[in-house]
Amino acid sequence: MGLDNVAVQWPATGRFYDPVAPAEFVDFADIADRPATESPTAALAGHIARTGTVRATAYTELIDLLLGLEGVLYATDAAAEDEDPVIDPDTCAWIAGGLEKFVAGHAELGPAVTFDTVAAVLRAALSDGRLAEQQLKWLEGRLDALRDDTGGAPQWSFPLSELAVLASFYRRCADRGFAVYAEF
Question: Which of 11, 29, 55, 127 could link 49 by a cystine bridge, Cβ 3.0 to 4.6 Å?
Answer without folding.
Answer: 29
